[in-house]
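USER: Fancy drafting a protein?

ASSISTANT:
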Amino acid sequence: DEIKVAITAPLVDGQANSHLIRFLAKEFGVAKSRVILEKGELGRHKQLRIDQPRQLPEVIARLLDA
């Protein structure tokens, strides 16, 4: 499955990736080190893994309930 996230950080020196990781860490209630960028470091499409999420963001919970 895929979720689309719009990031406003510049595409310079990995700033957009860092911004995305910080955002996801906050949403899932985990440390940034638990959000792992597995694929797509330089591309638009990324695959991330979130280890031991403490909470499920509301938007994702709604998708799972559908």
The first helix runs from residue 15 to 28. The first strand starts at residue 35 and ends at 39.
